[in-house]
Design a protein that fits this description.
single chain; mainly alpha; ABC transporter involved in vitamin B12 uptake, BtuC; two-stranded antiparallel ribbon
């Protein structure tokens, strides 16, 4: 059981990165970005197409790029698509509620999945591993893989950078200003639209970086990769979309719990329901005060 539980550290690292990105988006742009992973999925599929020289059998590119170049382009594409969505929201929905702004990302998620199916087809793409293999083996046969360490390290690095930038730099002051008092920040001369687009580009690019690395270890079809946002959102909910470190730790714990149930043959089906259960429990707990007030 311990072995199977710790095997969930790998997926937990993926969830942790996504949770950190979702918390940053919620805090800085007032958006719960349901399309966060879809940006990365689309960029990753672009990189595979550039390496293979074709999108589908009938769509030839005419040139095959080296893996490093294709991966960099895929990450940039993920960031640019994310930035485009951020610009649209900043342009036409600057004063909209968080619910309305988040609804746009649901439409973006569905659109990206549809376009990806049109461009790349329904079959999983042959992602070439960038990091693979075990890093170390602990007593008891517990194997720590390189991709697990990479994903957790990426989550920690992004969290540390965000904390330093937001608390120690003038850029962080401006980012917090547009999150708390957007109109006032704009009146004081802060380029609100540019700052919002920059946040969207950064989180989209990090999402692209994550997916191009982890896709070879996952079921790499379009829908499955895009739906990694669900456990990521569950982890972010553990931090109430406010605490980066709680989201990071929550993502790792979520993966460990899933790994634990994966080792129980009679309860293995519960594994995929764990994120949904976490979301439901959090929402019910979050509404407890209102329910208790009504009861009184």
């Amino acid at each position: 059981m311990l072995t199977t539980a710790l095997s969930g550290i790998g997926p937990g690292g993926y969830y942790a990165v996504i949770a950190v990105l979702l918390v940053l988006m919620a805090q800085l742009t007032r958006v719960v970005n349901f399309s966060q992973v879809a940006f990365g999925m689309f960029g990753a599929y672009i990189s595979v197409a550039l390496m293979s020289g074709q999108f589908q059998q009938s769509i030839k590119i005419g040139i095959k790029l080296p893996q490093v170049v294709a991966v960099v382009i895929g990450i940039l594409v993920a960031g640019l698509i994310s930035a485009l969505v951020g610009w649209i929201i900043a342009q036409w929905l600057p004063e909209a509620t968080g619910t309305a702004r988040s609804a746009v990302t649901v439409a973006t998620l569905l659109s990206l999945i549809s376009i990806a199916y049109i461009l790349f087809g329904s079959r999983p793409q042959p992602f070439k591993p960038i990091i693979f293999g075990p890093l170390m083996e602990l007593p008891g046969g517990i194997v720590i893989t390189k991709i697990s360490v990479f994903s957790i390290s990426l989550a920690v690095v992004v969290a540390i950078i965000a904390k330093i930038v937001l608390s120690k730099t003038m850029l962080g002051v401006r980012l917090r200003a547009i999150a708390d008092r957007q109109t006032a920040a704009e009146l004081l001369g802060v380029n609100v639209k540019l700052m919002n687009v920059a946040v969207w580009f950064f989180t989209g690019a990090v999402s692209g970086l994550l997916i191009v690395f982890i896709a070879p270890t996952q079921s790499s079809d379009i829908f499955t990769l895009s739906m990694l946002v669900v456990p990521g959102a569950a982890a972010a909910l553990i931090g109430a979309f406010k605490n980066i470190w709680a989201g990071l730790i929550g993502g790792i714990l979520l993966g460990v719990v899933q790994g634990f149930f994966a080792g129980l043959p009679d309860l293995i089906y519960i594994r995929d329901w764990i994120p949904i259960i976490v979301i439901i429990v959090f929402l019910l707990w979050n509404q407890r005060k209102e329910v208790w007030d009504v009861a009184r």
